[in-house]
Write a structure and sequence with these properties.
The protein is an alpha/beta fold and 242 residues long. It has one domain: Alpha-Beta Complex (Spore Coat Polysaccharide Biosynthesis Protein SpsA, Chain A). Helices cover 34% and strands 24% of the residues. The strands form four sheets. It has a seven-stranded mixed beta sheet, with helices on both faces. Strand 1 and strand 2 form a beta hairpin. Its EC number is 2.7.7.60. It catalyses: 2-C-methyl-D-erythritol 4-phosphate + CTP + H(+) = 4-CDP-2-C-methyl-D-erythritol + diphosphate. Catalyzes the formation of 4-diphosphocytidyl-2-C-methyl-D-erythritol from CTP and 2-C-methyl-D-erythritol 4-phosphate (MEP). This is 2-C-methyl-D-erythritol 4-phosphate cytidylyltransferase.
């Protein structure tokens, strides 16, 4: 029996889908998932976080066709026993996640989706997202926006400045009650809609998303500069651990 804010509940069965089939077009030729930081590939940091989480029961990894053999070799080498399937992804992130959804266990009560190129996710973030999903049905890790945001037209002219206190940068993991997520995914597929964020599928059905506490260090590897930042944070964490 688990308790948060005096609410008790049984731990649910949670399946994690890790989409890692992107083209990495902004990485200037760097294969970010296999790039090593402190002698460990980026994707292994990501998978290990979910392997070590008491809240995650199984992992489905979705990758490019050409990466399947190498990924399976790494999974065996690092003894990632929770990885149940390694699948070929689709042409978009949403298609890759939906491919993973078809492979999760029938007993999954909640689905956690996390970007394969977010290796700095912590145990606390994963736990908070799962617990909040149990309470709210759908949640996503997020952090408040720090910089002032401008909305501009196609000519670059500012139209307005939204209230920063209401703006958040959404991260992953994003965790959803399984049937709610399946219904939203089916609706998006039937409508021919392709989203870059899983929460959008829930929002389209009128569902509400709870924002769980994320971390500014939980960044996504998008450019070579991000890789340098991730390396620095891992080095800092290693020094803090002694």
């Amino acid at each position: 029996m688990w308790k948060k804010n005096q609410v008790e509940f049984e731990k649910p069965y949670v399946s994690a889908i890790i989409p890692a089939a992107g083209s990495a077009s902004r990485m200037q030729g760097i294969d970010k998932l296999f790039e090593e930081i402190l002698d460990i590939p980026v994707i292994i940091y990501t998978l290990s976080a979910f392997q070590q989480s008491d809240w995650i029961d199984e992992i489905v990894l979705v990758v490019r066709q050409g990466d399947i053999a190498d990924m399976m070799a790494l999974i065996k080498e690092f003894e990632l026993t929770k990885v149940k399937s390694v699948l070929c992804g689709g042409s978009s992130r949403q298609q890759s996640v939906l491919a993973g959804l078809e492979a999760v266990s029938a007993q999954a009560e909640y689905i956690a989706v996390h970007d394969g190129d977010r290796p700095l996710v912590t145990q606390q973030i994963i736990a908070d997202c799962v617990i909040d999903a149990v309470r709210y049905q759908a949640c996503a890790a997020a952090v408040p926006v720090i910089n002032t945001i401008k909305i501009a037209d196609e000519d670059g002219l500012v139209e307005c400045t939204p209230d920063r206190s209401k703006l958040y940068m959404v991260q992953t993991p994003q965790v959803f009650q399984a049937q709610l997520y399946r219904d939203a995914a089916a609706a998006a597929k039937d409508a021919g809609e392709d989203y870059t964020d899983d929460c959008q599928m829930i929002e389209k059905l009128g569902g509400r998303i709870h924002l769980s506490k994320g971390d500014y260090e939980n960044i996504k590897l998008t450019t070579p500069v991000d890789l340098l930042t991730v390396q620095a944070i891992f080095l800092m964490r290693e020094e803090e651990q002694g």
